Amino acid sequence: MTIETQEQNGITNITIKDEMTIYTALEQKNELAPHLKTDHELHINLSEVSEIDSAGLQILLFLKHEATTKNIDLSLLNHSQSVVEVLELLNLTAHFGDPIIISADWKSS
Amino acid sequence: MSELDAALETFAQEAEELLTEMEDSLLILEDTPDDSETINSVFRAMHTIKGSSGLFGFNLIVAFTHEAETILDQVRNGERSIDASLISTLLSCKDHTIKLLEFCFESPDADLPEDLQQTGDILIEQLTGQAKQEQLAVTTGTTEIENEGGDLSADNWLISLDFQQDALRNGMDPLSFIRYLKTLGEIKQILTSTPDLPSGNDMDPESCYLQFKILFKSDADKQTIEEVFEFASDDCDIKILPPDSQVEHYLNLLNTQTEEHVSLLGEMLIEAGAITKNDIDKALDAQSKQDPEQNEPAKPLGEILVEQQVIQQPVVEEALKKQEKTRQKVATESSYIRVDSNKLGQLINLVGELVISGAAMNLMVERHGLADVEEVATSMNTLVSDIRDTALELRMVQIGETFSRFRRVVRDVSKELSKDIELTISGGESELDKTVVEKINDPLTHLIRNSLDHGIESPEQRVQAGKPATGNISLNAFHESGHIVIQIIDDGAGLDSEKIVAKAINNGLITSAEEMSQQEIFNLIFEAGLSTKQQASSLSGRGVGMDVVKRNIEALRGSVNIDSIAGQGTTITIHLPLTLAIIDGFMVKTEHERYIIPLSMVEECVEMDAQEYEIDEIQHYVNLRGEVMPYLRLGDYFQNRKSHSKTGRESLVVVRFGQTKAGFVVDELLGEHQTVIKPLGKVFQSLKGITGATVLGDGNVALILDVQGLIRHATKNKQRIPSQLTSVA
C-alpha cells in the first residue's frame, strides 16, 4: 500500500508514499477518510509525495475541512518540495497553518 | 485531423502572419522609430507567439520569445530607445523564431540542435547586452504578495475561475493553468476556496471543487489572458475583470474607433479589448435564455455584461454612446473566410467543365434549331460566364503583399553591399491570380537582387556620376489589356550593350550584333550563360538565373523585356496573364482548323482588302489607316500552306501585345468563345506559337495562340526580309 499508518498515544501517523494525483486520488481518499476519528490527533507526513496535482490538493483540502468541522487536530508534516510549490502557488500555506520547512534552494530546481 | 493538429495548424498560420507583420513593422520603425502603434504591433507579435507556444508546450520558443518580449516591453515603455542595430537584431530574432517554430513543428519533443541554440544565445546576448541569465522564467517571489495589500484593483486584473466538477475527469489540471498564467505577469494575490466541498462520503476525489480568485498584474490584453484558459473554457466558469486603470484606456480606444460603420456593442467592446469573444458569447447565451413568459423586454447586452462581472459600467456606457453616434453611417462590414486553395482550384476546374458542357449544349441547340430552347440556353450561358468570372475572382489577390516582402530583401542586400537603396512601391492594389502570384515571387526576387547588385552603383560612384547617393528601385504594377504588367525600375548604371555583345559573341550566342536592335541586345542577358558583371558576388553574377527567370515567366504565358539607358537606369517589364485557367477567347478558322486568340488581345477585325489597306504581299505589311504593321497568315504558319486559292473573303484580326501590334489573316471569324485552357502535354511544349488547347463543345480541339510569340515571329520576318526571300516560299 502506498499509505503507511501507525497509531501511537492517540496520534495517528500517516505517511503518504506516492504521488497525489488524479490517478491515485480515489484510492487515497478512501484510505484516508476512515482515519478522521474524533479521538485521534492526525499527523500526515508528506515527505514522500513526489508529485501533487489539483486532485491531490483537493484531498488535502478535504481532510483539512473535515478535520476542522469534526474538531480533529490535523497537521501536515515534512512537506515535500512539490507540495510546497503548490501550496505557495495557491497561497494556501496559511490555510493549513502548518509550519513548512523551505530548503534554501527549492525555487531554483 | 485531430483537434490538436488543427489547433497547431492555426497556430502555425497565425505565427507566420504575426511574424510577417512584425517584419513590416520593424521596417517601418527604421523610418519612424517613435511610432508607438508600430512598436506595439512588434511587441504583440512576440507576445502572442510566446503565449500560444506555451499552450502547446513549446518551451524553447517561450524561452526565446520571452527575451525579445522583455526588450520590446522596455522599448514600449520608453526605457530603451530603438535604433538601427536593435532593429537588425530584432529582424534576426524574427528569422530565428521562424526556425524555432519549424523545428518545434517537425520534432516537438527533440532537443534543440546546437546551431539553433547558439544563434538563440547570441541573439539574446545582443538583445540584453549581457549573457543569458539562468532561469529567467523563475517563478515570482512570494514576498511581494504580502507587501502589496493596498490598491489591489487599481491595476490588477481580477480573474475568477470556477471549475466544474468534471474538470479533472476531462483531463484538466487547474494548477497548470495558474502556473502558465504566471508566465504572463505576476500573481499578486490568489485565493483558493472550495465552498461546494461535500463532506464525508459525498466527496468524490475525482470531481473538482476548486475555485480561485486571482489578482493578476500584467500588461497582457484581455484576449491573451483569456487564451490561457482557452482549453479549460468548457469545464470552467471564467470571469476576467479588467483593472480599473484599464477602463480609461478602453474609453480612449472606443473614442478613436472609426465611424465608418455601425458595429454591434459587443464588437466595439471586443475591438477595444475590454472584453473577449467568449464573454460576449456567454452574455448572448444568457440573454437568449431569459424567460419569455416574463413579458419583459430582453435585458440589454451591456447590462448582462456588467452583471456577469466581465466589464465595468462606464465602459459599456461609453461604447453605447459611441455606437449611437456612428449609427447613421451605415456600411456593410466586409468579412472574410479562410478557404483551402485546393478547394478553390477544384471549383475552378468544375467551372471549366461547366463552360465546356455549356458550349456543347449550345451546339446542340443550334444544330436542332430549337428556338424556344435557345432563349433558355442564352440566359444560362450568361449565368455560366458570371459564375466563371466570380470563381476566378475568388483567386485574385493583390500583388501588394508580394511587393512589400521585397522591402526586407532590399534592406538586407543593400546593407550587405554597403549601398544605400530605397524601394518605392506603386500599384500594389493590382490584382492577379493567386497561382500566378506564387509563381512570380522567385523570378521577381531574382530580378530585384540583380538590380540591387549590378544595377545600382555604390554611393561614391553615384555621387561621381552626379546622381543622389541613395539609389532607388521602384516596383510598379498595372493592368493592361487582360495582362498585369510588373515593372522593376532602377536608377542605376544601366546596361552596357557593348559588354553584352562582346560576351555574347565570346560565348557563341551570336556571331555579330549588326542586325540587332538595342532592345534585342539587352534581352540577350536572359539567355543562358551570360553575365556581364566581372566579379561574381554572393548574390548574382554567375550567369545562372536570368535564363531561368525568363523560362519561369514564359511558363506563366508571360514575357519579360528589358530596357536601359546607359548611366540612367534599367527598366525590366514583365507581362503576365491575369489567370491561368479560363479566358475569354476569340475563335477564328482557317483551312478548316479552329484557333483561339485571347479576346483581351484582339484590337479589331477588318476585311483583308488589298486595295484599301495597301497590303504588301511580299514583305507582309499592312497599312491600316496609316498604321503600318506586319501580318501573318495563320494558314501559312501552322499548316504550311503553299498556295492561296483566294476564292473566299479573308479577314484580318488585329492583335496587340504591349506596344506592338500585328495582324493575323484568317478565313473565317467565329466569334467570342469561353475558353478553358488545357495545358499541352510535354511532347508539344516546344511548339512555337501555341500556348495551350481547349476542348470545344463538339469535342474537337482548338489551339490557343501564343499571340506574343506570333507577333515576335511576324516582326522578325519583317526585319529579315532580304535573307528570307530565299528560304521561305
Task: Explain what this protein looks like in three dimensions.
The complex is a heterodimer of chains A (109) and B (729). Chain A contains four helices and four strands; from the N terminus they run E-E-H-E-H-E-H-H. Chain A is an alpha/beta fold. A four-stranded mixed beta sheet of chain A has the order 1-2-3-4. Chain A is globular. The model of chain A has no long low-confidence stretch (mean pLDDT 81). In chain B, a hairpin with a 3-residue loop joins strand 10 and strand 11. Chain B is globular, with a radius of gyration of 34 Å. Chain B starts with a helix and ends with a helix. The A-B interface holds A 22, 25-26, 28-29, 33, 53-55, 57-59, 61-62, 65-66, 69, 86, 88-92, 95, 107-108 and B 135, 138-139, 142, 145, 168, 172-175, 178-179, 182, 189-192, 194, 197, 199-201, 203, 205-206, 208-210, 212.
What is the compact description of this entry?
Chain A is an alpha/beta fold and 109 residues long. Chain A has 4 helices and 4 strands; from the N terminus they run E-E-H-E-H-E-H-H.
**Count of distinct structural domains of chain B:** 5
Query: Class of chain A in CATH?
Result: Alpha Beta
What ranges of chain A have pLDDT less than 50 throughout 5 or more consecutive residues?
Answer: none
Strand order of the largest sheet of chain B: 6-8-9-11-10
Total discrete domains of chain A: 1
**Strand runs of chain B, count:** 21
Largest sheet of chain B: 5 strands, mixed
Low-confidence stretches of chain B: 130-152, 328-334, 534-543, 720-729
Tally of separate helices of chain A: 4
Q: Record the strand order, biggest sheet of chain A.
A: 1-2-3-4
What count of helical segments of chain B does DSSP give? Answer: 25
Classification by helices and strands of chain B: alpha+beta
**SS elements, strand count of chain A:** 4
CA-atom Rg of chain B in angstroms? 34 Å
